[in-house]
Amino acid sequence: MGMVTTVGLVLHPRRDSKEAIDVIVEWARARKVTVLGLPDEVGRIDCSAEAVGPDALVERADLVVSLGGDGTMLRTMRLLAGRSTPVLGVNLGRLGFLAEIDVAELQPALSAIDNHDFTVEPRMAVRASLPDGRRVTAFNDIALVRIPGDRLAAVAISVEGDPFVRYSSDAVIVATSTGSTAYNFSAGGPIVSPRVEGFLVVPAAAHSTFNRALVLSADEHVALELLPSSGELAVEVDGAVHGRLSSGDRVTVTAVRGAGHVVRLGTTTFYERARRKLRVTGSAEVD
């Protein structure tokens, strides 16, 4: 008997996913596999997927297929955070870091997964406790970002309760290894292998003498406190605004090991994807 009995779908809000869904539905029909989708997503596409709420999809699916790009993959992983359900990413546009295949490869990929012929790449998340009591989880990054027209982000960083540095910058980013190729990279932070269980604290456009990134263990926690000189800051979770902070507010961030599980079929490596996506080249001096 195959591994897959129920497939869940998460769709990009705008890209055309009809071709991919048709492939999945046809593959599932031939194997008596149930296909689930979120009501507001499959409702706009003529398909036979069963519309269920997020909780039911998370509970029932033993494989979730993300159709879109890295943003859709991040949303899918947040939906499943803390569960062992594998996520297969399918590109519907630009090359990404998390999606594994294109639509043309979808049918053989589903069969390979059904036959247990795949590996799972665990992905760490970071989780923050906000001053209003909410907890947010990100697979790329949690960033405290200066609001245009307001003062700089002035943030004190403490690790395991020990004060370490005060940043004055446009933003302070707490990034996972997954997120090292996102906002962290644009702020000058390092590219980190997804196998590394640790996270980064990085200032963006720092206006202070110390402008280096910190690399922390997944066992450590970091506190970010807004200093009296700080402007109001937006809290961004994987790029989406989840609230605002004022001077005196404090956010504590911890790592969550194995919060997501990404399907890998051995077709490409992280370094191949990074070279292509980031257009990494060597120095002209060595060519």
UniProtKB/TrEMBL annotation:
Active site: 70
Top-rank taxon: Bacteria
Localization: Cytoplasm
Record Pfam families: NAD_kinase (PF01513), NAD_kinase_C (PF20143)
GO CC term (a single one): cytoplasm
Reaction it catalyzes: NAD(+) + ATP = ADP + NADP(+) + H(+)
EC number(s) recorded for this UniProt protein: 2.7.1.23
Named cofactor requirement(s): a divalent metal cation
HAMAP family, per database record: NAD_kinase (MF_00361)
Known role: Involved in the regulation of the intracellular balance of NAD and NADP, and is a key enzyme in the biosynthesis of NADP. Catalyzes specifically the phosphorylation on 2'-hydroxyl of the adenosine moiety of NAD to yield NADP.
Family of the protein in this entry: Belongs to the NAD kinase family.
Protein name: NAD kinase
